[in-house]
Queue: 2 jobs
Job 1
Amino acid sequence: MSDLRELYQEVILDHNKQPRNFHGVDPHDHEADGYNPLCGDKIHLELRLDDGGRIEDIGFNGDGCAISTASASIMTEVVKGKTVDEARSMFDRFHYLVTDESAQPDPSLGKLGVLAGVRDYPMRVKCATLAWHTLQAALENKGEISTE
Amino acid sequence: MSVTRESEALSGHGLDVARIRADFPVLHKPVNGKRLAFLDSGASAQKPQCVIDAERECYESYYANIHRGVYQLSQRSTQAYEGVRPIVQRFIHAADEREIVFVRGATEAINLVAQSFVRPKLNPGDEILITEMEHHANIVPWQMIAEETGAKVVVAPIFDNGELDMAAFRERLTARTRFVSVVHVSNTLGTINPVEEIITLAHERDIPVLVDGAQSAPHMPVDVQAMGADFYCFSAHKTYGPSGVGVLWGKLEHLEAMPPYQGGGDMIRTVSFEKTTYAAPPQRFEAGTPNIAGTIALGTALEYIESVGREAISAHEHGLLEYGMEALAEIDGMRFIGTAEHKAGVISFVLEGAHPHDMGTILDMEGIAVRAGHHCTQPLMTRYGVPATVRASFGMYNDRDDVDQLVGGLRRVKEFFG
Ligand SMILES: Cc1ncc(COP(=O)(O)O)c(C=O)c1O
């Protein structure tokens, strides 16, 4: 098992303490609620697409552990300005990064790389991916997802 | 140091923790290179060697299906299996061993009573009274039958300290109340409920009572007759026995009047396609092949508990509770969830700035096993306005080193979430 510092990097602790884009988006055209029944993490996500199909604004609120809060916060930062397809493809690569033991660092993921340590803690992977599943649900107008 | 501690344990509670610990193999296996501090017996207890041996011995030397074969192995298995009934009878002071029904666990016991005893009595508008501190296992089965019959589940509230509001409970016992189901010891708060008083109040109105003993059977003496309950249940895996086995105790007069819960082999007297007659209790409620070796090992587990002494276990765990509450209270930002005056060895808490799940992970790295979550008591989490808590729960094998390790682990949590 790796060092806890690998998991709880400063960037994560910082995003947990001061989550970015921690607010609603008014007006918004997509929203969803994500719930992780195992630990009780809850997130509400709102976003607005511009005419070109890019994520113009995105915000979240909710209540979760440091990993899920930081992951949501960083996610909103990195997907802002991206097209829906770009965001989806980021999720694919991010998912691979936090679940596959053999995953190499992926520079294209930028800041998301700090969450790579999660893969050593299988019980916590869902915390890291909750925001992303919620984003996917919002984009598909599913409204609500639960990670079980 | 260890000598004084041992003698202190011996003179204080008549319980030799070092010797008990030696009986539990898993406690001596390091986790992440650290000494294991297992503080999650509330979820499930570890198993002593004798229990592990009992199950293995059954498979190695005399296993066969029970109640069927005329050959010797089957007779031996049947004898060993049936031999557990009088052990359970003694363990909970039941009047008759026919009152002991083997089930899969507390959950199945409650479902059995809900379906076979309560459901047939329900009419629209009738009420089932439970408390705000129930485990989901003592909420959902009642909601299910309420929904089917038009009855209602009524909830008696608790005070902020986690004690049941008895005045409010009394008010909710009405002419419409058909059944009361309460937890003896709350798995989340540790509260020991005044079940005798609850039963007396209910019986004044002829309302039968089930006591969920999942968290009392392993930790204190239990006398179902003195308590006066109509039903009592517990799970073997929390009493240092195997998982998938449990006990429903019910007054014989009730069991005799109840229809079967499941149909199948072993629960019948005669079967024809025209008419089937049912066996008497307890067989009526034990359809199909049960967990034979597991039930036999349950007997061993209960005998083990008795050999340690239930008063001694209760006193020992209470000592740890006091020591632990005092030590944890020193930590900045500590908030206890559940501070009832009568409390079993359960400490639930939240820490300002640190989510229970992050605490759980950090503590795990320090070799400390605690539960972080809602403990199958989501209404309680809502009641206290927390998404989850960390829960340390004690078993007979815990000692002050475990508590000290937890305190050290929480200091480590503070390094990240100070
Ligand atoms: C108070 C209480 N009731 C019922 C149960 C359910 O027990 P089981 O899952 O063994 O059926 C538990 C287990 O956590 C419990 O603590």
Note: The interface with chain A takes residues 32, 354-358, 361-362, 365, 372-374, 381, 387-388, 412, 416-417 of chain B (CB under 8 Å).
Job 2
Amino acid sequence: MNVLQVRDLTKRHGRKHNLVRAVDGVDLDVPAGQMLAVTGPSGCGKSTLLNLMAGLERPTGGQVWLAGERIDTAGERALARLRRRSVGFVFQSFHLVEELTAAENVELPVLLAGGSPRAAKRRAGQLLDQVGLADRARQLPWKLSGGERQRVAVARALANEPLVVLADEPTGNLDTAATNEVLRLFADLRAMGQTVVMVTHDARVAATADRLVSMRDGVFVEDTWLGGGSGWLDGLFAMGD
Amino acid sequence: MQDAILAMLAKEPSHGYDLGLRLRRALGPLGGSMNAGQVYVTLARLEKAGLVVHERSAGSPDRPDRKVYALTDAGHERVTAWLAEVNRPKPDLVEFHLKLAAASASRLADPVELVDAQRRELLRRLAEAQRAVLAEPEGSTGGLLLEGIALRLQADLRWLEACERVWSRRADA
Amino acid sequence: MGRLLLVSRLVLGDLRRHPGPAVLLVLSTFVATAVLSLGMSLPGATERLYLQTRAATAGPDVVALAPGMGGATDAVLTSLENAPGVVARSRPYRQFFATLTTGGGEARAIVLGADAKPGPIDRPLVTSGRWVRPGGVVVERGFAGAVGVDVGDRVAVAGRTFPVVGIAVTAARTVYPWAMMGGPGNGPSDGAGLVWMTEPDTRPLAASGLPVTSLVYLRMADPADTTRYMAFYHDTPNSAGGRVGDSAARVNSFTWQSMAHQDDVYLRDGQPILIIGGWLLSFMAVAGLSTLAAGRAAAQARRAGLLKVVGATPGLIAVVLLAEYLTLALLADAAGLALARLAAPTIINPSGSLLTADAGPHGGAVVMTTVVAVGVAILTAAAPALRAVRANVDRRPDHLVLLSRMAGWLPVPLLLGLRLVARRPGRALLHAGGTATTAIGLTVLLMVHAQPRDGWDLGGVTLADLADDQSRRLLAGVTAAMAVLAVVNTLTMTWTTATESRATMAVARTLGATPGQVTAGLAAAQLLPTLPGAFLGIPLGLSLHWFFGPADQPPTPLLWSVPPVLLLATGLLSVVPARLAARRSVAEALAA
Ligand SMILES: Nc1ncnc2c1ncn2[C@@H]1O[C@H](COP(=O)(O)OP(=O)(O)OP(=O)(O)O)[C@@H](O)[C@H]1O
Ligand SMILES: [Mg+2]
């Protein structure tokens, strides 16, 4: 079953001379459990595509189905409900709520979805433990390192067990070590069968996905399947002997 | 070198001197270190292998008596195979660069497609290496080697991105 | 030189990029300094105006009046030239207790028989038209304004019609409506205005048997020393063998000092209104401006950080911040003083009976308001400047634990609102303080308007009580200024809260909060501090009113409307930016 389905999706900015085709007629199916990476040069429309798929922006044309529900035409309330229950977001600049502690940030989606404070607390504890931050739960975001902040953000994205996690350059602000921390987390998600769509221009990050689509000027130019090893690494070591 | 010269001949039969010029142009600043004799030695070797043949051209007044080299059928086959081939442990920079230049000149292949194919392959390898890296616990020595492999692959991929940018702009122009 | 250029360039750049806060700063400071300087220029203002009028009209040092006319009365009055300190006197003049009839009705008037060419003492200053001529009268300016006559109008004096040929002011009379200076027979005075006509024109008045009083103007050797004269004239024998002052032909003397103080009656009520209003407005300005400054603190700290990176010293950063606020505050102060100067004549000379060429804030008031304006600027800039200079660590106050814990059990909008409040308790206090100040102003205003009003009885017509009118007008002005500042402050606070919480609210929306929830959260964050502020302002306003006004006046039921009105206004003002923000796409809001 496809968690996300995109047909002829278009988003334009400006008009005439300033016309920018940020996304220009894109088709995409993301089956459940797939980890998809979208790469491409800066400005090719990756973020726009991701925002369109979460209803954070309205498309100029085309359709988006999230879990079988049309979202490009949905009202704000319906979108809010979808975001609350079906989508988890991870951003390049973390976007944690600065006023809330790490644990409170993770609780927020649960509370928004109508969960009891007790349930929210339990879920936050469990997730922070999963991302290895149980001991930093009561810190405010500005006291955390970039890698820790992003792990809190991932925990928050998972709070309502979303159908799909959308990540926009989740490692864009991190160094190699912190990037690996976050990527390990994503590898765990993949192993758990979580559907993930992430946008990145870092090949190493993209390489952790099952499938890679390359974007250029608002269109897909390539769709590569990365799953399954070719045994190349083993061959490499054999040659080294 | 052999393959590059073969590919250059695929466009049209040429004098050894012209071939040298074209090679040097493709290599840019690095081409200065190539000596002219190398081209003739290589051509002779290729001829022996039955990949090229030469005929004397009617000498022009200023430079009489010149050999014009052309591909044989076997030579053609070899060029096509070379252009399509991606499955090397890692691309030799100079060779790959010449391949793109030759592909573009001979129109036997689209350089952008060559880059894409190469990149797909490298990405698959990187995916494998990266997964292995992430599978290693943090700080293990075994992971260190994998990290090195992944970083090299990443560097190669970056270069391929640059290649693609330049060659696709060429194609547009 | 280069440094000066740098500072001015930075200041100008900031002003150009953020004109809104600059406008608010100027507006708030302007209103506060205008009102404060007006309030501060009231003490002694009338006396200054009187002195000015006295100098311009050769005002007498003493006016002595005795009932009746004729030899005996004149003899008593002329004998006063022998009183101690007196160096000169005028001839005796007559004033008749008559009426002035205009289109609007009939008012009590004192008709003074004047010289066609005034003598050395008391030379009334004609402010429009010309001086009396046979068959033409001149009306005192305050009186003319009150009954609405002008040069060229025709009026009836004791039944005879005259054209008004001029309007004049004099220092020989207490200001309108106290022109009588003792009723017929030196009895108690009623309100009346002053009319001059030539001596021959007054003869029919004398013949018709209207009550009359004679008067002379005296000049003293030392105008400051009128006490010896006042002590003496009670001991002067009069023609009836009694004593001047308590005899049948009584003499009633008015020194120039007593006339100067008479006008104060107008300002006795106005002064506290203006001074208290000025301070309230200053406080409101500080409340609003601090919110503004706090709202911009983050941006300023970032700016300071950038400056530091390129090598600016902490001192320079402080100078840039202070220079901006100081320049704006001084600008606003100058504008406020200018407005005070323009408004002063009507405020301190409500009757129009005095010259006002020299009205307006003087040394003390100018210094004081400038100090206040500079203080506001320093208070506003100090916190961000200090923070910017000290460290670049962005410290946030640790949250109020109880409030946050409570918030966990509330609906999501309230939760968001409470959290926003809990993170910025200082801001919430400021907001509450600003609201309380507005509530105080509204309370005092409602209480004053609930007072019964009396007018002045001028015989046939009842003219408005100028003093009461004056204080009401001032109060309305102060209230209008307060309303302006209240709106400005509420806008500032809602704007600040909206911008500060924009990121939070956008993130909340990516997590699935509806636009309604986000709007409600923002409104909750604003209304929570408004509520206690609005309720606290009422008792404070009442005690202020009872302290300066009638202490026995019961609170008007209208006061109950103050909190709802304030809450409604704040709610509306805060919903607008929230709704606008909610209309934008989430992606846009996040990128902002
Ligand atoms: N609100 C907007 N108005 C006008 N143009 C826009 C707007 N938002 C995006 N664009 C344009 O749309 C194009 C795609 O932008 P987008 O942010 O999706 O790129 P991206 O692939 O995410 O780039 P990066 O890797 O740098 O983040 C860009 O050319 C950008 O300038
Ligand atoms: Mg982007």
Note: Chain C has three domains: 1-44+283-395, 51-263, 398-592.
